[in-house]
Amino acid sequence: MDDTCDRKLDLDEFSKGLHDYGISLDNSEIHNLFSEMDKDDSGNLNFDEFLKALRPPMSQTRVNLIEQAFQKLDRTGDKEITVDDLRGVYNAHYHPKYQNGELTENEVFELFLKSFDSPSNPDTKVTWEEFLNYYSGVSASIDCDAYFDLIMRLAWRL
């Protein structure tokens, strides 16, 4: 759909893409859908906005598991996961780059946090919204609640 290869869709590309995929909507429906998906009101859909719009909603069971994992990591209870929160919860000493001396313990923690951090705000502080968004993406690829439950419990020792 991204004819200009700029990793975003304008209304014309979006409209053409819907047509190309056989989705029949009138112009007002296309405009309304585009506006709903364009969360930052930029007039373009960036890659994250597009993917978020396509994700199915998560069950409350999944959200509860994600919340348990977040609370386990947020040791200070300030609604952000930081490097200090990770001490005692995540062991950086097993990371290969720590073991070979390439990264310090703090650098391993920062690398870990960046995997959850929002690309638009890479501050090595992970908010509940960023954590939920990350797992919403994971959830979209897992059909079964029981399997998602198992993955979360094993990953976070819940």
Automatic annotation (TrEMBL):
Signal peptide: none
Coiled coil: none
Keywords per UniProt: Calcium, Metal-binding, Repeat
Listed Pfam families: EF-hand_7
Domain of life of the organism encoding this protein: Eukaryota
InterPro entries referenced in this protein's UniProt entry, alphabetically: Ca-bind, EF-hand-dom_pair, EF_Hand_1_Ca_BS, EF_hand_dom
Domain EF-hand: 25-60, 61-96
Gene3D superfamilies from the UniProt entry: EF-hand (1.10.238.10)
Entry-linked SUPFAM superfamilies: EF-hand (SSF47473)
SMART domains: EFh
Transmembrane segments: none
Protein name (database record): Calcyphosin-like protein
